[in-house]
Amino acid sequence: MKISVITISFNNEEDISSTLESVINQTYDNLEYIVIDGKSTDGTIDIIEKYIDKIDVFVSEPDKGMYDAINKGIEAATGDVVGLIHAGDRLYEKDTISKIAQHFQQNPAIDGMYGNSKIVTKAGEVRMVNIGKEFSKKRIKAGWMPSHQSIYLKKNVFEKYGYYRNDLGGAGDYELFIRFFYCQELNIKYLDEFIIYFTLGGNSTRSIWSKLKSQKVHRKCWRLNGINPPTTLVINKIFRKLPMVFKAFRRQLNGS
């Protein structure tokens, strides 16, 4: 089974190396690594080129934003399964992709999976742990969503149900999650393993405040898929994010 891992980057010279190394040092042999850069103007491209012999596909060109870059990566992917890791974040262990591949091989009927994640400082201090549970659509209505980069899906799911939308600001990943996990009858199976470290200050966490402010856009994501959002959706999602927000706020107060 071939697994394609996609990294998107733009002006990430400070933290791109750790991301690249976490992928190219994986023990799983049948791994395709795709890096899509938005035509960085700092030293990001120079750093990526140091690892170019370990990267299967590298594209650096202007794009229409994060989700446009991800879509380019998915289109280029030739693996059976596709997953993401953004610049600044890291796969959890050297055998993480092996565990993901084994999960799919042991459960050949599944369309996708998700796992656990940790949010850490650049110094490695754990600030938040996101532990999943067995998949349930009822939990989605209550505001639950797994860490996006812990999700791995078969390539044919994208081919059948579409890619990321570019017209929803930072909510493109949530809309795709609702479209795939709630609106479709996909066979999703939780993997009780840590998949990824999200690094504070990286692409996935630096917009935490804007994510909180944009929760109402998530209601639109339901309507775009022909479903009225749950009445308490925004409140539920905000309460789920409060621990992360409080820790980020404390971090800012401490100047760390």
Structural account:
Strands 1, 2, 3, 4, 5, 6, 7, 8 and 9 form a 9-stranded mixed β-sheet that branches. The chain starts with a strand and ends with a helix. The longest helix is centred in the C-terminal third of the chain and has 22 residues. Helices cover 39% and strands 21% of the residues. With 256 residues, it is α/β, with parallel strands linked by helices. The mean pLDDT is 88. Helix 7 crosses helix 9. The chain has a single domain, classed as Alpha-Beta Complex (Spore Coat Polysaccharide Biosynthesis Protein SpsA, Chain A), CATH 3.90.550.
| Rg of Cα set | 17 Å
Q: What's the architecture, going by CATH?
A: Alpha-Beta Complex
Give the biggest beta sheet.
9 strands, mixed
In the CATH scheme, the class would be Alpha Beta
Strand % is: 15-25%
Say what the CATH topology is. Spore Coat Polysaccharide Biosynthesis Protein SpsA, Chain A
Q: How many distinct domains?
A: 1
Question: In terms of topology, how is this protein built?
Answer:
Blueprint: E1 3-9, H1 16-24, E2 31-37, H2 44-50, E3 57-60, H3 66-76, E4 81-84, E5 90-91, H4 96-106, E6 112-120, E7 126-130, H5 137-141, E8 152-154, H6 155-161, H7 172-182, E9 188-199, H8 208-213, H9 215-224, H10 233-254
Parallel strand pairs: 1-2, 1-4, 2-3, 6-9
Antiparallel strand pairs: 4-8, 5-9, 6-7, 6-8
Helix pairs in contact: 7-9, 9-10
Structural descriptors:
Spore Coat Polysaccharide Biosynthesis Protein SpsA, Chain A; 9-stranded mixed β-sheet; globular; single chain; 256 residues; alpha/beta; 21% strand
